[in-house]
Description:
CATH superfamily: NAD(P)-binding Rossmann-like Domain
Strand order of the largest sheet: 2-1-5-6-7
Helix content: 25-40%
Amino acid sequence: MPIEDAATIEKILRNTKTIALVGASEDPTRDANRIMRFLLNRGYTVYPVNPRYSSVLGKACYPNLASVPGPIDIVDVFRRSEAVPGIVDEAIEVKAKVLWLQFDVIHEEAAARAEQHGMQVVMNRCIAVEYNRVL
């Protein structure tokens, strides 16, 4: 069952160091770009993930989660809901701790699969909105 309570979301955000942002964009008008900037400004290490780019906001961009150097605390997803099952497969492989699906990104079956593999799941919530709400 996806996490909704503020105390758990606060704990996740406080204990997070690294975020892989799937669907990163160079376009400053895109939410993925604005949220990546927001997270970087709050001290998180953010790895942009998008095979279309070599860098985003001056950070090396990776084609997939397996290419990200080091452990991933949160996989933050800015992709359409139908892409989530494949992202969950990758997140399981890299042993991510949390699957975070942004506003309007909903996939109940993939979320359940992530939970079965030990991940916490936050679904249909913006990480920046939640950060401002609980921290």
